Structures are given as structure tokens and as C-alpha cells.
Amino acid sequence: MSDIISREVPTYDARAIESRWMKTWDEENLFAVDTDPAKPKKYVLEMFPYPSGDLHMGHARNYTIGDAMARQARMRGFDVLHPIGFDAFGLPAENAAIKHNTQAAAWTYKNMDQALATMKRMGFSYDLDRMVKTCEPNYYKWGQWIFEKLWERGLVYRKKNPVNWCPKCQTVLANEQVTEGHCWRCDSEVEKRDLEQWYIKITAYSQELLDDLEKLPGWPERVKQMQANWIGRSEGAEVDFTLCDAAGEPTDTKITVFTTRADTLFGCSFFLLAPEYKGLAELVAGTEYEAAVMKVVEDSKHVSAVERAQGELEKHGAFTGRYVVNPINGEKVPVWVADYVISDYGTGAVMAVPCGDQRDFEFAKKYDLPIIPIILADDDPLYAELKNEQGRKVTSVDWDAAMVAEGTLVQSGKYTGMEGGKHSAGEAAIVADLEAAGSGKRSVQYRLRDWLISRQRYWGNPIPAIHCPKCGIVPVPEEDLPVTLPEDLNLGAGETLAEDKDFYECTCPQCGGPARRETDTMDTFTCSSWYYIRYTDPHNDELPFSREAADRWMPVDNYIGGIEHAILHLLYSRFFTKALRDMGLLDVDEPFTNLLCQGMVKDENGDVMSKSKGNVVPPSSVIEPYGADTMRLTILFIAPPEKDFDWDTDAVAGANRFIKRAWRTVWQLVETGTDASALDKAALSEEGLKLYRERHRTLAKCTEDFDRQQFNTAISAIMELVNAANAYLNAVPAGEREAADAALVAQVAEDIVCTLAPICPFVTEELWHTALGHTESVYVAPWPTFDAAEAAADEVEIAVQVLGKVRGRAMVPVVADADAMRAAAEQVAAKWLEGKTVVKAICVPGKLVNLVVK
Ligand code: ANZ
Ligand code: ZN
User: What pLDDT, on the 0 to 100 scale, is given for residue 101?
Assistant: First the structure.
């Protein structure tokens, strides 16, 4: 042992090692994809960042996970694509430019440069030749091109509609960008405004977006659930009610409702219209009801549709003075306006059934409207009384809440006694009869709305359209793309695109007359909906990407990003992929095969890190004193990637200690090692055999854990291998090593370096070259091979007893049967057996043999 300690191990100098390799990798362009079609491909991708400043801990975690995956895949023989870019358009850049009176581009480029420097500092293996920055014309040109292709296919349109308006951001927002009535970006309360806007028809793909979630077994269940809920498929029926005139006489006008519960038609005691319902104002114009109804209409403008639909707010409504006729029983019910009915779901009109719907129940209570029990559970006290009742015996109840969703229909004419509920027999029977009578039909509704993509902001991709007084709205001809965003707007002075004559003055491509260029830009989510395909062919100037490149690399095999993108970005990307496929540009149905949503990094007290709380731990606070390898190891070892974790400075120190230990161990192993290829299992010493088995066991575990993306336990396996190596070093002095052992030890040194390489690329690169003498990068080294079966010992030691007393120990093959065990035991115990006969041998495999003698 003494000579090991006396051996001089070089000091681990993270700073020197990391700056040297960072430079070398950069010079050698080590991470460029070498596209080898003979190898299987693997496309590993982290969601690209918005360049708002330097990278934070969440980014560091995201990219470290992806980088470990990409590097390991490369070592395992895959042709790996691992690119990065920037989601470079967006409001923060514009706001910063306004505030500091500079250009949005300048701010954005400065931040991108800083983030890139940190990425290099972290050792991320990105192919930087494939970088995509969405604010560059060679990228956004193709976004405009795709927009026009969507337009050609009828997937783009303009519509005047009440839209979400953020007063602070001064722009409209998509439904997806409104969280509980507030702007997703600045948290201001969102208002409704009637504006003509550009839409992308994502709803054309509602059903496919829902169905294809089944093609994604590699996605977290909860993300798929969130998408399914957002798409919100609902099966039900449309039922036509007849509107009565002011005198109460039926007219020819029908008002249709969407209901999932046609079985409850007999319980409809009033009828509701959304405040935005077209024609509502005319219904009440000049009547005594007008003022109250219009007040509800006005007040509802201040509450977002999302909140209104959630049904948690107090409900407001007013009687319109009108009635409609229920088609199932000819009954007249009063028409009210109610703010919890939203205009853009179903038909914007509702048949209210307070007995079955909690919202209607609350409304009925508040405005004293009848609650007619028509569906009852068998154990309901009313059930016995109404069980066979087809008419109207009870028309008001003093319940605290609406009824159970399922039960038996009562007071429901000929349907009384049938099962009620969603998709029930009663519902089917009623819908069939309505259909036969021409007053209803089956209907499927989706919550998903078309994607509002126009923004009245500057720093985004210009919508390539021209407004011509003669020809209407015409697309910018393909040869004129891109519509270039001016970079010299005086934002600080409040100048907008809509005021920039140089930008908007143009001629109509159809008639050549003077025209005005569209000055809205696209939602930046359009830019992030296809960047991952551009990476496959980033320099293409004929097309957004070639079919060949897309076919080689798509879909992304491993996509890693935050759960906050569970709906917006992932849904839009899935839609773009399907639309591009239908244009013949692509041959995949889904863009991302496996999705990993990494957990959050919280502060030491478990609070979310935020600038305003002042509890942010910047990656530099670890990188500077300890190095990037320690940062990476900490992040991967502290928790499985999908779990949240609390920042822990002890964990940083622990990670750094392990790197030093691995460093020392590798140097000590190679000091005594020889050529690893001389490894001969049969010639290993007893200690050597132990290390041999540990090697196979830990490599099997480590590899399997990498496959499951459980980097924390993969690292534990590497630690165990390091421990086994140290146990060996301590037991066998360097000078006393057989050739076979020396070869094994050399092999183990390589294994430690290779398995640790995807996690700690700098220190392993240094060891690979200096301690192990390689000339190529460890990045291109093959992943260690192993045989899990070799982890099992082939012999075991058993105790040998004579009449219950231990007399010795014997080595027997693990697979030895009772006869073989007995023979081995008799040999060891020969001395105690002299002159006696063994009458019986009690064998416990792997443990002992007890010889019974006479
Ligand atoms: C009568 C009824 C009785 C209803 C009952 C429910 C329970 P999902 O499942 O989410 O699709 N509804 C329809 N359009 C609406 C709108 N624009 N705003 C607010 N509510 C609306 O919800 C469908 C149900 O929501 C429909 O079925 C309708 O109320 C209501 F015991 O009709 B139901
Ligand atoms: Zn024209």
C-alpha cells in the first residue's frame, strides 16, 4: 500500500483543465455532426431558450440532462444530432429596447452571446454550425413561407372576434396564453376587445391531435392528459329550441344548444344565452328588460372567458322577456342571459337543467327559478315517490346541490324509468327521437379554439400579407420573401411598425397599385413550432428543410424541457408537424418520440428561485469555484431528472469530492496497469476476481440506468466501481500484481473514465489523454462493453460442519449439487472423519454442509 500513496498523483485543477479542453473542442469543432448513415440515428434536443439574459439553473439542468444523453448515445455508436439555437423574437427584447432606447436586435444578440459562452463553459456538445436564431431572416423567411403554405391550404384566415387583449403588453393573446384571466407573460388582467385578427386553423386537426396522443408512449402521462383536456372533446347532441315572439307565440327562429345531457331535457326549466350571443341586443331592444340584460353584457367584458367557464365566480344574469319552446315536451321556458355561458363553446346557448348541472343549480337558486327533479339515485328519498311518475308532480326541491350525474329518469314522459347520465340509454333514446323529429342531432364539440397568431408588436416575424384597396388581402409573392423586419425603428421614441412608412408602403403584387403592408407580426410560438426541423438542414436556402434531411433525423428521439410547455409549445409543434406532413414536406406524424419534463430547481428552503425573491443561485456560483464538471455532476446526482430538487451546497461539495476521488483512483490504477487487452479471467487473483465481477455488475447497472435516464443511480453505479477499484488497490500492493490483474486494473481505469465522460466531460477528457494516453477525444470513445452474467460469482465458500461443529470451509461451484458439496466437505473434514462413517450429509446450497457420522 505504501508505494501507492507515495506515487505522485497530479493535482486536479478544474480551472486549468476546463479552459484547456473548452478551447481545444472549439478549435477542433469536435461536436459537429458527422452524419454517418450506416449508424442508427439519435436526435437529442433540449427546448431552445429565450435569450433573456444569462442561463439560470433551470437551463443548466435542462441542457446537462440533454448533453449527458447525447454524449452517451454517441459513445454507444449512434449518429447523434444535438443542436441548439435561440427563440430570439419576443416582447422582453422590445420592452428592454424601449426602456434603454436601443435596438431589440442589439439586446437579443448580446444575451445570446452571453448564453452561448456559458453553454461552452458548461461543455455542452452542441453542433454550433446548425444554430438557429429565429430573429434571422434566413430562418424567419421560412416561417413566412410556411405561413403562406398554410394559407394556401385554407389553414389561415382573418376574423373579427372578441379577443384577449393585454393592456400592458399592448397586444392580443391566444387563449393558451391566458392563465386564470391573466397574461402569461406580465400577469396583467386580460380584457376582451373586438378586433380583426389572423388565425391558424389548428382545430382542423383537433381529432388527430387527440388520437395521436396514443402514439406517444414515451411522453409523461400528465402531459398527455393536459393536452387531451385542452383539446377537450365532448360528445353530445345539438337540440333546437323554438324562439317565441314578444307576445309569446312560437316563431320560425330556432336557437340551438349543445348538450352532453339530452337525457335531462325534461328538467330544463330555463334557457340561457351568452352575453356575446349574436342577436341578443335585438331581442331586448326597446323592452323593459333591455337595461338589465345590457348591464350583464357590459359587466361580463371584464371577466375572462376562462374564468367564466370555470364556474367558480358568482353568476350573474337577467331575464330577456322572451321564451323558447322545449322540443321534447312543447313546454315554454324563459330565456335569460347568463355570464357563465361562454360564446365560443358549443353554440353559445344552453338548456339549463338545475337538477343536473351545478352551475344551473346555483343560478336557479340565486334567481329563484324552478328546480325540477328528473334524475334520481335509487336511494334518494324522492325516488320511491317519483319512480313511475311521467308527469310533473314535484317542481321544486330544497337541495343544497345539483343531483348525481347518473341515476334513473323520472318525471320524463315515456322515458321515465330509463337509465340517465352521459352516454346513457335514456340519452340515446331521446337523441334518436329528436333526430327522427328533425329537432336535434348528434354532435361532437372541442374546447380547442383556432390559434390567434397576430400580434401588434414589432419584434416578431412579419406576417407576409399586403392589404390592397382593390384586391383585398394578398400574400407576398414567394420570390419577395422574406418580408424583412426593419432593425432601425426608434422604439425608444415609441415608434411602431404601423407607423413606419418605409415598411408598410408597398405596391400590390396583383394589380400594381399602391397598397399597405400588414404590420402585425406572428406570435413567437410560430417560430418555435418548427425550429427542430430546421436544425436538420439549417443552411437550406431553397426550402425550410429538405425532405432527405428531415427523413434522416425526424422525429426527435429525446426532447427535454419544462412542464410549462405541456400545452402551448408542444401542441403547436404537433400541429405544425402534421400540417407539414400533409404538405408532403415531412413523413412523420409526431415530432417528439420521447419527452422528458425536467423538474424544477428550487432554493435550499424549497422555494422557487426568482429574481424578485433574491434567492437565485446562478450556475456561475458553482462553476467559478468548482468547475463545470462539479456543476453537471451535482445536477445529475442530486435527483432523478423529472423530479424537483432543492439546491444543496453540501451536494456540490460532495460532487466535487467524488470527482477528486475518481481522479486519484484512475491515476493510481494506471500507475500499476498494463495493456487492458491482456485480461484473462482464469488467471486473476482472488481480489482481481472480485473487482472483475464488480466491473461487470456496475457497468450493467450504469448502462441500464442511462437507458432509463436515471442519471443519479447511473452515477451511484460508477461510484461503486470506484469503490471496488479502491478496495483492490488497498488489498493488493502495486509490486505484487499478476499480469492478468494489471490488465484488469487498466481496463477498470478506462471504464471509470468512459462512464463518467457524458456527465463530467472535462475531467474525463483530461484523464483520457494524460493518464490513459489516448490521442482521440473520449467523446468518440466507445462505451464499455460488459456481460451482466459475469457479475455472478462462479464459486462460493461454504462452511463444513461435522455433527454441527464447524471444522473448515470449502470452495464449491455455485451450481454444485448435493453430491458435489458432500464430496468437497468430506475432503476438508477428512481429519474428523477418520475411522467413522458418514451416514448423512445435510446440504444448504451456498451456505454449508453438515456431516452426520457414526
Ligand atoms: C344540459 C345539461 C344538463 C348539461 C346536465 C350538463 C349537465 P362539456 O362536458 O364540457 O362539453 N354548455 C354547453 N355550451 C356551453 C357554453 N357555451 N357555456 C357554458 N356551458 C355550456 O359541457 C357540456 C355542457 O356544458 C352542456 O351540457 C351544457 O350543459 C353546458 F345535467 O346541457 B349541459
Ligand atoms: Zn391590389
Answer: 86
**Nearest bound ligand to CA 467?**
2
138 CB burial (10 A radius; 0-12, 13-18, 19+): middle
CA distance 848 to 550: 63
Closest C-alpha residue for ligand 1 atom 32: 259
Task: Tell me: pLDDT of 350 over 80.
Answer: yes
pLDDT average, residue stretch 787-797? 81
Q: Whose CA is nearest to atom 25 of ligand 1?
A: 259
Query: Which atom from ligand 1 is nearest to the alpha carbon of 347?
Result: 17
Which DSSP string corresponds to 115-132? Answer: HHHHHHHTT----GGG-E
The pLDDT, as a whole number, for residue 2 is 35
Considering every ligand atom, which ligand is closest to the CA of 447? 1
| Burial environment of residue 279 by CB neighbours within 10 A (0 to 12, 13 to 18, 19 or more) | exposed
Tell me the CA–centroid distance for residue 699 and ligand 2, in Å.
69
The residue written with cell numbers 381529432 in the block is 207
**Does residue 342 have its Cβ closer than 6 Å to ligand 1?**
yes
- In contact, 208 and 491? CB cutoff 8 Å: no
Nearest CA to ligand 1 atom 28: 259
Q: To the nearest whole percent, how much of the chain has pLDDT over 90?
A: 78
Cβ atoms of 176 and 302 closer than 8 Å: no
Q: Indicate the pTM of the whole model.
A: 0.87
Whole-angstrom distance, CA of residue 207 vs CA of residue 446 = 9
Show the beta-strand stretches assigned E in 563-602: 592-598, 601-602
DSSP 783-851: PPP--GGGGS-SEEEEEEEETTEEEEEEEEETT--HHHHHHHHHHHTHHHHTT--EEEEEEETTTEEEE
Say yes or no: CB of residue 777 within 6 Å of ligand 1.
no
* Separation of CA 262 and ligand 1 centre (Å): 10
Are 521 and 462 in contact by the 8 Å Cβ rule? The answer is: yes
Radius of gyration of the chain (CA): 36
Predicted pLDDT of residue 305: 67
Q: How far apart are CA 764 and CA 750, in angstroms?
A: 10
Is the Cβ atom of 666 under 6 angstroms away from ligand 1? no
Residue of 765, 783, 759 lying closest to 636 (CA atoms): 759
- Report in angstroms the alpha-carbon separations of 118 from 33, 56, 67, 124, 573: 21, 10, 14, 9, 27
Quick one: pLDDT at residue 304?
A: 66
Query: Running DSSP on this structure, what letter comes out for residue 769?
Result: I
How does DSSP classify residue 49?
A: P
Calculate the dihedral angle through the C-alpha atoms of 122, 642, 85, 78, rounding to the nearest 10 degrees: 80
Provide the pLDDT for residue 675: 67
Determine whether the shortest distance from the Cβ of 348 to ligand 1 is under 6 A.
yes
Does residue 350 have its Cβ closer than 6 Å to ligand 1?
A: yes
pLDDT at 302: 75
Ligand that comes closest to the CA of residue 510: 2
For a mutational test of ligand 1's pocket, the pick from 345, 362, 431, i.e. the residue with the most ligand atoms closer than 8 A to its C-beta, is 345
Interval between CA 258 and ligand 1 midpoint (Å): 7
418-468 pLDDT tens trace: 999 999 999 999 999 999 999 999 999 999 999 999 998 899 999 999 999
